[in-house]
Amino acid sequence: MDITLRDIRKTFGHTDVLRGINLTFRSGTVTVLLGPSGSGKTTLLNIVAGLVPATGGHVLFGGQDVTALPVEARHIGYVFQSHALFPHLTAAGNVEFPLRVRGVGRGERRQRARDALAIVEMAHLAERDVSTLSGGQRQRVAIARALVANPDVLLLDEPLSALDPQLRDRIREELRALLEPLPVPVVLVTHDQHDAFVLADQVVLLHGGEVAQLGTPQDLYLRPANETVARFLGIASYLADDEGNRRLVRPEDLELAADDGPCDVVLRIERVQFLGDRQRVTGSTPDGDAPIIVDVSKAARVAAGELARFRIRRNGRTMPVAAQASHLVGPGY
Ligand SMILES: Nc1ncnc2c1ncn2[C@@H]1O[C@H](COP(=O)(O)OP(=O)(O)OP(=O)(O)O)[C@@H](O)[C@H]1O
């Protein structure tokens, strides 16, 4: 069952947080809502859930308009940022809880909780108190609990934010493997572009209460709709081309030119940062008003104050990019 949002608007006081959102979340597709703090990601998720009423517009689950239905009348699975597990219950006890609320009998509850825990590969820890589980294991229990009642949609609010950076990298991969085969629409909120790159089939970048761009992670990184999108995902510099267009350049799109070879741009180096696996050079063109950021190898000889010659990599792609938000919406959606 697909979920459709039609012209969803939300106003808090005098602030328009969402200004007419039109989206479809498809079954078997992971959609990541990405955007800066305060862009309305959680509000939109909660409108899908029925936890927050929309000021205007419609939410459809399949063909059914559920806009007026409260959360308990919608079939949703929700994984909260904090996971919100009951610490005094076992993993199985937590997963059974939504079924208990619905009055499902004990035997069936146990079986379904065991099945849901098996999906997240936690069946062997079913009888452990959740207070004794690791952060990643708790997250799996939270997902099993969200899935146990066969929801029409799985919603996750910043599911990785409670984890430390190293664990976060590993759990992100695991989460992708868990979410990929689910036969429902999955909608996940994050402000972290790495989460979006790894987890998303489609990314919705929210900005200023609107969809700034919708597309695959590749669409947003390689073909950003405008400078706002380009700057939000990764490092973006701009070069003027012969026709006077501003062209987007990512740090990996330029390389040092051979001394006697052709070159596309000369930079006066202002700063060199050692990043371990590479060096990040910040420099300026003679007529450029904004700095250009380029990554070079860790062994390259680059120093502040010097001039350096760069080429656009053969497979590097620069592209003209619009300064202003136009309502560019990715292909196929
Ligand atoms: N109940 C509320 N009452 C008033 N304002 C609210 C309420 N909930 C959210 N807001 C405001 O709406 C805007 C969007 O909030 P929301 O939590 O949806 O953003 P977000 O993109 O999820 O941000 P973050 O990444 O910081 O969680 C913010 O300016 C917030 O202050």
Structure description:
By secondary structure, the protein is α+β, with helices and mostly antiparallel strands. It folds into 2 domains: 3-228, Rossmann fold (3-Layer(aba) Sandwich); 239-312, Nucleic acid-binding proteins (OB fold (Dihydrolipoamide Acetyltransferase, E2P)). It is 24% helix and 31% strand. The strands form 4 sheets. Strands 6-7-8-3-9-10 form a 6-stranded mixed beta sheet, with helices on both faces. A 5-stranded antiparallel beta sheet has the order 13-17-14-15-16, with no helix packed on it. Helix 2 (91-101) packs across helix 3 (106-119), helix 2 runs parallel beside helix 4 (135-147) and helix 3 (106-119) crosses helix 4 (135-147). It starts with a strand and ends in a 13-residue tail after the last strand. Bound molecules: adenosine-5'-triphosphate. Adenosine-5'-triphosphate (ATP) binds next to helix 1.
Approximate helicity band:
10-25%
Helix and strand content put the structural class at alpha+beta
Q: List the domain count as a whole number.
A: 2
Biggest sheet: strands, sense, closure?
6 strands, mixed
Uncertain ranges = 324-333
Tell me the Rg in angstroms.
24 Å
Task: Using the coordinates shown, work out and report the CATH topology of the largest domain.
Answer: Rossmann fold
**Small-molecule binders:** adenosine-5'-triphosphate
Order of helices and strands: EEEHEEEHHHEHEHEEHHEEEEEEEE
Question: Which CATH C-level class of the largest domain is it?
Answer: Alpha Beta
**Strand order of the main beta sheet, please?**
6-7-8-3-9-10
Distance between the termini: 16 Å
Strand content: 25-35%
Mean pLDDT: 89
Q: Note the overall shape.
A: elongated
Compute the number of strand runs: 18
CATH superfamily of the largest domain, called what?
P-loop containing nucleotide triphosphate hydrolases
Protein name: Putative spermidine/putrescine transport system ATP-binding protein
GO molecular function: ABC-type ferric iron transporter activity; ATP binding; ATP hydrolysis activity
Organism: Enhydrobacter aerosaccus
Domain ABC transporter: 3-233
